């Protein structure tokens, strides 16, 4: 763990490592440097620490990464500082906890053991967190939530607003100076009350993030039900498939990338952090009846329904009432195989996804997804945002009520649309009845007014 040969015992170790999330410049021309205020905090903190210690002239007080340059030299410098600093000072903000580099810095520092400097000390951490912005409405990652840090001790204005607001607003000038003084004092106290030996320089870029947490509603699990080339049924054109099932490329040559990769790009534009999976590996979790972990999308290749085993998996999924997983069924109108087999494969889809198709109602805009509703890449691009957001809303409803409970019905819009069709007129799915129970016989025709078809959004 240790590398004493890599550090001169006579050299002064920096008191603190300031860890912060680099803020990008605003798009407006002439916009100021958004990291100016962090640099000012760093300078003020270094000055305050100097006043509270006997550090000699020229000795390093702290470290702050200002380069933003990637590469081996940048990573080597960070590794060196994280292996030698005495205290780790993270600036809490929503951007901080979504930053991979910040998570790697936290992880790298906390790989070093912490010993109390004397028998009476109970300090077991070298992390001194700072509220850059108020974090009351945000859930902290586990490693941050475990620190039990009293931010109110730096002053009530600091605890309510965070340092950034105190720096920007002249009204809070005295509150800012008090917070910096107390922060510097806390850094010095932790440095003197703990022994954190110099550690081995780690390969920074290969380190995991200590946070590794994405809010469930920000996640989107994209599942693909399709073939890889080696398992295609006889007569199916292999040009639309790849070495993996997730390489399915139904809109070739119009689309530049496999469908799952295209879906990831669209999902990121909606603010999701998507991941791609094979449906075969996801289905047990989806149909297990437990609490869902994230909203999802199923990209279903109807050709895969010719496989009896996969067809049964889709039936199980359909009966599980997984409303937090949207189903999209691309069907390329320019693929000769799809045109030739549209009828039989459409029937297989209706049988396997009987309940899912039943609730595929027109939206407010009257955009219904029929059997060939996703016949082009443009159709898919239009349908995915609706499907993803609908899955997100259903996931939020599900996690609010808990597995096995009944969600509180949304207010009916019947009164607002007198003369309309109630829930159908509002674009809401009709409530499921006893006929929708998993034990229902296969092949039953949809209820009156239901519209069979695929490509649900």
Overview of this protein structure:
β9 (296-300), α11 (308-319) and β10 (325-328) form a beta-alpha-beta unit. It is elongated and about 85 Å long. The strands form 3 sheets. It has a 4-stranded parallel β-sheet, sandwiched between helices. Strands 8-7-9-10 form a 4-stranded parallel β-sheet. The protein has a two-stranded antiparallel ribbon with strand order 4-6. The protein is 35% helix and 9% strand. With 457 residues, it is α/β, with parallel strands linked by helices.
Poorly predicted regions: 1-7, 361-372, 403-457
- Roughly how much helix do the residues carry, as a percent range? 25-40%
Mean pLDDT: 81
Task: Kindly report the spatial arrangement of strands forming the biggest sheet.
Answer: 2-1-3-5
The structural class is alpha/beta
What count of helical segments does DSSP give?
A: 15
For the biggest sheet, the summary is: 4 strands, parallel
Shape: elongated
Order of helices and strands: EHEHEHHEEHHHHEEHEHEHEHHHH
Total strands: the figure is 10
In whole angstroms, the N-to-C terminal distance is 53 Å
Quaternary assembly: single chain
Rg calc: 28 Å
Beta-strand percent range: 5-15%
Topology:
Layout: E1 16-19, H1 36-52, E2 62-64, H2 72-84, E3 87-92, H3 94-97, H4 100-109, E4 115-116, E5 130-131, H5 142-145, H6 156-161, H7 163-168, H8 173-193, E6 194-195, E7 219-225, H9 259-269, E8 273-278, H10 279-286, E9 296-300, H11 308-319, E10 325-328, H12 336-340, H13 342-352, H14 354-358, H15 377-401
Parallel strand pairs: 1-2, 1-3, 3-5, 7-8, 7-9, 9-10
Antiparallel strand pairs: 4-6
Helix pairs in contact: 1-8
């Amino acid at each position: 763990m240790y590398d004493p040969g890599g550090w001169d015992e006579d050299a002064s170790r920096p008191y603190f490592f300031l860890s912060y999330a680099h803020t990008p410049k605003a798009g407006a021309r002439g916009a100021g440097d958004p990291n100016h205020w962090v640099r000012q905090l760093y300078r003020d903190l270094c000055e305050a620490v100097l006043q509270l210690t006997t550090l000699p002239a020229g000795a390093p007080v702290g470290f702050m990464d200002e380069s933003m340059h990637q590469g081996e030299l940048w990573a080597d410098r960070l590794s060196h500082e994280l292996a030698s600093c005495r205290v780790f000072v993270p600036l809490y903000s929503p951007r901080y906890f979504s930053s991979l580099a910040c998570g790697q810095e936290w992880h790298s520092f906390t790989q070093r053991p912490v010993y109390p400097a004397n028998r009476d000390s109970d300090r077991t951490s070298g992390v001194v967190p700072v509220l850059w912005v108020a974090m009351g409405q945000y859930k902290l990652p586990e490693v941050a939530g475990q620190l039990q840090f009293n931010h109110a001790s730096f002053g009530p204005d600091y605890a309510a607003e965070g340092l950034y607001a105190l720096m920007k607003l002249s009204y809070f000038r005295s509150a800012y100076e008090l917070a910096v003084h107390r922060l510097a004092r806390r850094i010095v106290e932790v440095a003197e009350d703990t022994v954190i030996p110099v550690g081995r320089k780690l390969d920074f870029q290969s380190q995991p993030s200590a946070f590794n947490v994405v809010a469930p509603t920000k996640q989107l699990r994209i599942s693909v039900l399709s073939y890889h080339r080696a398992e295609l049924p006889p007569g199916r054109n292999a040009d639309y498939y790849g070495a993996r099932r997730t390489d399915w490329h139904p809109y070739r040559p119009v689309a530049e990338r496999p469908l799952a990769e295209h879906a990831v790009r669209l999902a990121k534009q909606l603010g999701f952090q998507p991941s791609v999976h094979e449906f075969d590996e996801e289905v047990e979790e989806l149909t297990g009846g437990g609490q869902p972990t994230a909203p999802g999308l199923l990209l279903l290749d109807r050709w895969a329904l010719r496989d009896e085993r996969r067809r049964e998996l889709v039936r199980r999924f359909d009966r599980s009432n997984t409303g937090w997983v949207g189903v999209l069924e691309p069907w390329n109108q320019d693929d000769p195989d799809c045109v030739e087999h549209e009828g039989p494969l459409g029937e297989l889809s209706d049988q396997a996804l009987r309940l899912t198709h039943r609730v595929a109602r027109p939206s407010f805009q009257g955009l219904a997804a029929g059997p060939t509703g996703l016949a082009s890449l443009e159709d898919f691009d239009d349908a995915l945002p609706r499907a993803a957001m609908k899955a997100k809303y259903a996931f939020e409803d599900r996690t609010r009520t808990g597995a096995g409970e009944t969600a509180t019905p949304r207010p009916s819009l019947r009164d607002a649309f007198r003369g309309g069709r109630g829930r159908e007129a509002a674009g809401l799915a009709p409530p499921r009845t006893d006929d929708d129970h998993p034990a229902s016989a296969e092949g039953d025709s949809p209820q009156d007014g239901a519209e069979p078809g695929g490509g649900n959004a």
